[in-house]
Amino acid sequence: MEIKGAHILITGASRGIGRAFAKSCAEDKAHLHLVVRKKDAALVKEMEDAGAASVTLWTADLASPNSVAKLVEAMAEEKIDILFNNAGVLTGGLLEKQSEEEIYNVMQINVLSLIQLTRAFLPGMLKRKRGKIVNNASVAAVMHFPGGTTYCASKAAVLAFTECLKNELHGTKVSTLTLVTPTIKTGMYDELVDKYGKNFDDVKDQNALSPQTYAKMIREAVLSDLTILEPQGLTGVGLKIAKYIPQLFDWGTRKKFHR
Predict the structure, then answer these.
(1) CB 203 within 8 A of CB 151
(2) Is the pLDDT of residue 187 over 90?
(3) Strand order in the sheet with 31-36
(4) DSSP string computed for the chain
(5) So which residues are the catalytic ones?
(6) In this structure, are residues 152 and 198 in contact, taking their beta carbons and an 8 Å threshold?
(7) What is the pLDDT of residues 109-152, one digit of tens each?
(8) Count of CB atoms within 10 A of residue 60's CB?
(9) Tens digit of pLDDT for each residue in 82-118?
């Protein structure tokens, strides 16, 4: 799908993958609709300097269903061509040590807000016979490691949701793109040791990509109308092992895990 001139809505746009992809789209002269928790003049200027056709900030707390509903209401007249459900939070560690609040938050932000926004903007796309929904899943959707109970569950839900939606949309002019995202050097990457370090050895991935590199990969996937973007290299091998030889994957992760 063409990015130039498109109206693109990006959640989690203030940092990491969201910010890097927004800048890439700005360089392609897109109209940007960026969902952030608070106004950010520097973000607007960065996107305008990069060449965006227009930049609009929308404030919302995706941890609140009511806030998401207000966002949808405020954007009711906007004609969104590409919806990038990128926002996400990380949970980890022993299940009994995770608080109810963080468990509810990971499901609301990673899954439920994504479904809310998709449901809201899909009818307009279908009516206009134009649109793409990009959902940020993760290798964690398939690679189910100890300590990842709630995070893996949230990303598995995103993967399943998007794959089902892909089939619902077959034959329409609206398509989906599932990002089976590998480790990216973002703020979430910096949280890995805190969330998993007590129970897991070698949590830092030395093959982690920069947000800018991954944003370029997403751009190419959108332009090529791919339905899924999976990692290559060692992460890609690990993903295939988790898919097709789960017993081997489980054995490997258990060796690194300790209560």
Answers:
(1) no
(2) no
(3) 54-59, 31-36, 7-11, 82-85, 131-136, 174-179, 228-229
(4) ---TT-EEEEESTTSHHHHHHHHHHHHTTPEEEEEESS--HHHHHHHHHHT-SEEEEEE--TT-HHHHHHHHHHTTT---SEEEE-------S-GGGS-HHHHHHHHIIIIIHHHHHHHHHHHHHHHHT-EEEEEE--GGGT---TT-HHHHHHHHHHHHHHHHHHHHTTTSSEEEEEE----BSSHHHHHHHHHHTTTBS--S-TTPBPHHHHHHHHHHHHHTT-SEE---HHHHHHHHHHHH-HHHHHHHHHHHB--
(5) 151
(6) no
(7) 999 999 999 999 999 999 999 999 999 999 999 999 999 999 99
(8) 22
(9) 999 999 999 999 999 999 999 999 999 999 999 999 9
Residue at token pair 């899954």: 111
Element (H, E) at 228: strand 228-229
CATH class of 7-256: alpha beta
Residue with tokens 């899943």: 137
pLDDT at residue number 205: 82
| Region for residue 51 given its phi and psi (left: phi exceeds 0; alpha: psi -120 to 50; beta: otherwise) | left
**Burial class for 201, CB neighbours closer than 10 Å (0-12, 13-18, 19+):** exposed
